[in-house]
Amino acid sequence: MTTRLLLVSDTHIPGRARGLPDALLRAADAADLVIHAGDWVAASVLDDLEQHGEVLGVSGNNDGPDLRERLPEVARRDIEGVRFAVVHETGDARRREARMDDAHPDADVLVFGHSHIPWNTTTPGGLRLLNPGSPTDRRRQPHHTMMTVVVDSGALREVELVVL
């Protein structure tokens, strides 16, 4: 069976946008699961996203007690035989691969956020690191972004950074 994922992070609503972009909501409707790597800021963003499908999310450093009560700091899910972990922060980019190999030895894919910088690498230990950037707060990046992923038969078949 094929599972279509939408990866997002760092929506920072209402600080950086009034709402989620229409293109993101259409992608959420088309996805089997939305993974959000934290910094929602308003719980209404989680509520809105849940209206478009199943959401697996974590809290971020800018999320208040209302979101921290609803969301863990680390989420894990087996999807089509691929072990996913989701966190908000991974620390400095230097030595990220080695740190994450040590921190998440039981995962095949780690989805993270915080930096607003899209990231798609594989560590020496084989852990796939994915950061979708931000669909609403690009900071110093040229574009607002999100990612789509297709998981099938125990493997990532497609990983695409989507520019909004």
Automatic annotation (TrEMBL):
- E.C. no: 3.1.4.-
Taxonomically, which superkingdom? Bacteria
Cofactor(s) recorded in Swiss-Prot or TrEMBL: a divalent metal cation
Do the record's keywords include Transit peptide? no
Keywords (A to Z) from UniProt: Metal-binding
Calcineurin-like phosphoesterase domain residues are 4-153
Metal-binding as a keyword? yes
Membership in a protein family = Belongs to the metallophosphoesterase superfamily. YfcE family.
Protein name as it appears in the record: Phosphoesterase
Q: Which organism is it from?
A: Microbacterium gallinarum
> Which taxonomic lineage is given here?
Bacteria, Bacillati, Actinomycetota, Actinomycetes, Micrococcales
